[in-house]
Amino acid sequence: MRNRPEAPVALALICTILAGLGLAVVYWLGGQPQIEGALLAVALGGLGAALILWERRLMPQEQVEEEREIASSAEERAAAQAALERGGEEFGRRRFLARLLGAAAAALGLAALFPIRSLGRAPGLSLFRTAWRPGTIAVDENGVPVGAEQIAVGSVLTVFPQGHPGSADGQALLIRVEDGALRLPPDRLAGAPEGLVAYSKVCTHAGCPVGLYRAQTHQLLCPCHQSTFDVLSGAQPTFGPASRPLPQLPIEIGSDGLVRARGDFTEPVGPGFWEL
Amino acid sequence: MRRLGALLVLSAVPTLLIVGPRAGGQISAANAGPELFATGCASCHGVTGEGTANGPPLVGVGPASVDFMLSTGRMPLADPTQQPTRQSPKYTGDQIDALVAYVTSLGPGGEPIPVVDPEAGELMEGRDVYSFGCLACHGAGGQGASVGGGQLAPTLDRATPEQVAEAVRIGPGAMPPFTEGLIDQQELDSLVRYVFELREAPDPGGFDLGRVGPVTEGFVAWVLGLGILLLVIRLTGTRT
After folding, report:
1. What is the ipTM of this complex?
2. How high does pLDDT run on average in chain B?
């Protein structure tokens, strides 16, 4: 080895050649990602190793530094400083032009305020209300009206106000718990007949859909930040960053068995923007 | 109650040993259920399935629930305080059938063992049902995920078509049930077909990395790929 310093370089290059040919053969035979990846790694690694070994073992090892002067001469520096000072004096003398410059900048800034109008219409009451009205029929994601008997004890279904399937703020979770298990104030209990209760699906923390329901413990879980809500006690938060319960949608079961709203949610849905 | 159950279990053991060989090494189907129940289930679920402090009542849970719990090895549990997870089943198919028949005879109610025909399902419909009902907990790739509170939605990689259908209908553990009113038979067939499509989907990169997409893939690329590169640079470079 000491007598043949080019041997390791040749060995690495031969590895690259064999791996490259192997890669072509594997590809031709139908391909296998792991084998192809390994062969490519050997081929490129061999090439890199060969170049490094070539440089280390065969090239002359000498470090050369190119000297160069970067500083200007003393006369040039003095001239530049004098020019800069004359410019400053000139600017201080033109008071009128300087004031015009300030006014131009202010006018431009004022004009930049006007595109605020282009951000769209004022939201009005739309953030406080959803499409649910007294008597609105609850539908599933396909727009089909939901019958109360569809929801067995322990089951959950995402419902929307009729005419707005897929509505972001109107989506609600319709859950049936054991009859009599709900612990709600009497006025809220009236909107949860036969153990059937509906809550907004929009998390009160950051507005994610509260998609996970642990039926055994009656807990709703928001997958974004693990906010947990207790279904039996009015969707009060029991864990996580949400500080406000999910608004309840008061519902009733019509004589036709369909689920209808008795009105809008008990309070605005989603994160508490109005408390800012 | 617990002591009584244990006593009965103990007294049932010699009975089994005596009855067993006499029936030619096999317990007949008619009495296998009660025997197996007394030895494997009664200590926690009560002698007549009425439930104890260690286990819920089994009267009226229905055949699907018993078949699911036993065929996925979630029951019997060695320690009633632990969360049941998938194990290899402790009973043979015949024994499970006998236990299902016996527990069903304890009281009416519950879901029958669903019949499922994935061939009759439609893939696109199955995807819709999966996205609406399953994805939030079991993940887009069916690999399972945490549902908070120390509980896991299990991976769907090992379940049989019948077990997927049973879980849909009964809602085992933390899972809510999806009865006929929410997922009808046609949708159930489609859903099971989609779950099996997910499982058989090819992984062109070789490793699925949990099938959770760019997060794990990026992690591997940055930590492993760049880490190895940095090591090589450190080994080959010179410092002046």
Report:
1. 0.72
2. 84
Closest chain B residue to A239, measured at CA: B149
Model confidence band, residue B29 (pLDDT cutoffs 50, 70, 90): low
What distance in Å separates the CA atoms of residue A97 and residue B66, rounded to the nearest whole number?
Answer: 91
Between B232 and B122, the more confident residue is: B122
Measure the CA dihedral B220/B221/B227/B228, to 10°: 110
Per-residue confidence (pLDDT) for residue B23, from 0 to 100? 38
A212 contacts on B by Cβ (under 8 Å): 136-137, 147-148
Whether A155 and B204 lie within 8 Å, measured CB to CB:
no
Point out the residue among A155, A219, A221 whose CB comes nearest to the CB of B182: A155
Q: How many CA atoms are closer than 13 Å to the CA of A66, on its beta-carbon side?
A: 2
- B interface with A, Cβ–Cβ below 8 Å: 132, 136-137, 147-149, 151, 171, 173-179, 181-182, 204-206, 232, 236, 240
Give me the DSSP letters along chain A.
--S-TTHHHHHHHHHHHHHHHHHHHHHHTT--HHHHHHHHHHHHHHHHHHHHHHHHHTS-----------SPPHHHHHHHHHHHHHHHHHHHH-HHHHHHHHHHHHHHHHHHHGGGGGG-S--TTTTT--S--TTPBEE-TTSPBPBGGGS-TT-EEEEEETT-TT-TTT-EEEEE--TT-----HHHHTTSGGGEEEEESB-TTT--B--EEETTTTEEE-TTT--EEETTTTTEEEESS--SPPPB--EEE-TTSBEEESSS-SS--SS-GGG-
| Long-range contact set of residues B131-136: C-beta below 8 Å, sequence gap at least 24 | B132/A141, B132/A158, B133/B168, B133/B178, B133/B182, B133/B183, B133/B191, B134/B191, B134/B195, B136/A211, B136/A212, B136/A223
User: Who's near A63: CB < 8 A, 6+ residues apart?
Assistant: B240
A100: pLDDT strictly greater than 80: yes
